Amino acid sequence: DKEDIKIMKGYEGDPAMLAEAEKFFLTLMKVPEYALRLDCMKFSYEFKPQTEVLGTRIENCLKAGNAILESKEVQELLHIMLVVGNFINTGGYAGNAAGFKLSLLSKIHEIKSNKPRMTMMHVLVESIEKNKPDLLHFYKKFDGITNVAKIDNAENERELRELKKVLDDIKGRMKKLDQESADKFKEIIKEADDFCLKAKKGIEEINGLEAKYIKFFVLDKKNYSLQECFRVFSVFCDKFAAAIGENKKRREQEERLARRKAEMAKRETLPRAKKKGMPPPEEECVIDNLLSEIRGGLKLRKTKSVGAAESKALTRNLSIKKSNQESAEKWRKTKIAMRMATINTCRPISEKPPEDKLTLNGDTPNPPVDIAQIDIGVKS
């Protein structure tokens, strides 16, 4: 600060009485052209990091710009897009077009297809996979285009002007230094001069690329810049790569669905008893089947295993049904006995009952039955 310098120059006291910072400042003022020396040292420390960033941006911009213009894959891809677009627009006012606007590249993924979850980008990728598989991974040659799309050449020009301004200021003031001191900074000054010339040439080439793009893609100079062209290609490459993965995932889903439908159709053709999870027709009424086998003396078949509670309920139902059948049989015999008792009461004592009528077992006539002694054991 000039005010601090004026104060320190006017100090005539004992330097030992000053603080460490003031002592250092007072000593530094005794060095000839100390401010110039400090500026040169600062420039030499900041020069390389600053020039590396600027130089890399210019180099990447030129590399990506020339790669797009010189790429045969890009030209062939644009031709395929034109053919697909003309096919879609056949019979319409936009059919049989000679070209299309560059901005379409960043909007093709927004054009919906009549198939769910598909766009024109997916259709384009499928077409390239079938007909031009060598073009499928063209975007890998432009990996750095996303970062290049963020670079504004006007910003490069501004940074170069600031660097050149600082460099010219130091070069003009170095005349005040002695030869020995000037030689210490001579190498860094020369390196800075060489970089500024190279960077200026690179920026001019970028401006020339912009003119080539406008001519090659028939663009409006007022509405398009090189940065905008890079942004369009960046969006197109990202969406193209995403469409490849989405198409693959959709095909896998369709294959799984087709296999599932085939399995269901095959299952429908099988007999009902063989279908998984469906009991065979003979097992529809387990209790009736078991009772039928018990009465017929057939060997019991193994049925589906059940739990303890279900087994207990099944046993109880079987017991109740068997008891009801026994009670029904006893009641049938009781009715026969009652009829026999009525007949014996109405017939004379000397008359014998007919031997071929109303017998319980078919061998001998039934004796009179005392109704009071009959036990009707019907259970519910």
Give the SSE order as H and E letters: HHHHHHHHHHH
What is the mean predicted local confidence, pLDDT?
78
Distance between the termini: 116 Å
Number of strands: 0
Broad structural category:
mainly alpha
Helical content band:
55-70%
Estimated share of beta-strand residues: under 5%
Q: Tell me the Rg in angstroms.
A: 53 Å
Shape: elongated
Largest pleated sheet: none
Low-confidence segments, given as residue ranges, are: 280-284, 353-380
DSSP helical segment count: 11
Write a brief structural summary.
The chain is built from 11 helices and no strands.
Notable traits:
single chain; 380 residues; mainly alpha; elongated; disordered C terminus
What features would you describe in this structure?
The protein is mainly alpha-helical. It is 63% helix and 0% strand. Helix 3 (34-70) packs parallel to helix 8, helix 5 (120-131) packs across helix 9 (226-269) and helix 7 (153-173) runs antiparallel to helix 8. It has helices spanning 2-9, 20-28, 34-70, 72-88, 120-131, 145-148, 153-173, 179-216, 226-269, 286-296, 308-346. It is built from eleven helices and no strands.
